[in-house]
Design brief:
Order of helices and strands: HHEEEHEEEEE
Oligomer: single chain
Number of domains: 2
Shape: elongated
Largest sheet: 5 strands, mixed
Strand content: 15-25%
Low-confidence stretches: none
Number of strands: 8
Structural class: alpha+beta
Helix content: 40-55%
Radius of gyration: 23 Å
Length: 171
């Protein structure tokens, strides 16, 4: 049975621990912004790894499906609501009007990101002002995924080669 004194002592120590935790969080967030930047970079690297592995998985799914449908070589293969190119890499949403070898619009790049990463992907917009993560497409039809808080890195996806890479940008 707890006495009143021991109960007050436990509350006191619990209060001290809570105060210490609040102080530590305050210090990490407001006094040490580099720690937030490090966490943001780690999250970006994890999203890169997940996207790269998702593209590989989609390619393996394409290979298995293509082996089962050898007779339908003229027909484009669609998996997980994505259209694939001849090399077996995602290029567009399944409702794209024409068959192609690489993404041609920002919407194609956005659909690839959403379908490959599934429901746990960070929110992605087509404008840098709308969201933390945003997407663009180069003149070479390479999808570029950026985090607005990280100015010197981006994820690039080349559907022709199936290459996903982190590129460092020199500002």
């Amino acid at each position: 049975m707890l006495t009143t004194t021991s109960f007050k002592n436990r509350l006191f120590y619990l209060g001290l621990i809570a105060l210490f935790v609040l102080f530590a969080v305050y210090w990490l967030i407001y006094k040490e912004p580099s720690s937030i930047n490090n966490l943001e970079r780690r999250a970006f690297a994890l999203n890169y790894s997940a996207f790269e592995n998702g593209i590989r998985l989609a390619n393996y799914q394409f290979i298995v499906r293509a082996a089962n449908e050898r007779s339908n070589t003229n027909k484009s293969i669609k998996i997980n609501r994505l259209m694939f190119n001849n090399n077996g890499f995602p290029v567009a949403n399944e409702d794209a009007s024409s068959y192609r070898q690489s993404p041609s619009t920002v919407q194609d790049c956005r659909a690839i990101w959403q379908r490959v990463l599934g429901p746990l992907q960070p929110e992605l917009s087509i404008s840098a002002k709308e969201s933390r993560y945003w997407v663009d497409i180069t003149v070479d039809n390479i999808c570029v995924y950026r985090n607005g808080r990280i100015d010197d890195q981006q994820i690039e996806y080349d559907a022709v080669k199936g290459l996903v890479s982190i590129v460092t940008i020199n500002n």
